[in-house]
TrEMBL record:
Organism name: Lawsonibacter hominis
Pfam family, one: DUF6442
Top-level division of the source organism's lineage: Bacteria
Keyword line: Membrane, Transmembrane, Transmembrane helix
Protein's name according to its UniProt entry: Uncharacterized protein
Ranges annotated as spanning the membrane: 31-50, 56-72, 84-105
Length: 109
């Protein structure tokens, strides 16, 4: 195969998307996920210090984002590890959501 055939094959395979851009986007997503987790931790700690209760709503949002991200990966790549992670993240999301609802009920009473 000559260079032009290889490039054309690569373009078809990647649907004319830039591989460097795809890699940067993936790295940005990973960094954004870590920053999101750090922000949730900081908000929870600050809220705990000032109110003596836990701030749970950011965790519901964070784990719903992780669940969606991992489910999309599973749908595209069909890796069982992604499905297991998605189920774990969904369980965490639902757990934090349940605690969030319980807290709302406590506050209302």
């Amino acid at each position: 195969m000559n260079k032009e055939n290889i490039l054309e094959s690569s373009r078809r395979e990647n649907k004319n998307r830039d591989l460097a851009e795809m890699e940067v986007t993936a790295q940005a997503g990973n960094i954004a996920g870590r920053v999101g987790a750090a922000v949730c931790v900081v908000l929870t700690l600050i809220f705990r210090i000032f109110t003596k209760t836990y701030f749970l709503s950011p965790w519901v949002v964070y784990f719903s984002i992780l669940t969606t991200h991992t489910l999309v990966k599973y749908a595209r790549l069909k890796r069982k590890t992604d499905l297991i992670l998605a189920i774990l993240y969904l369980a965490m999301c639902l757990t934090f959501f349940a605690f969030f609802i319980l807290r709302l009920v406590e506050v209302k009473e």
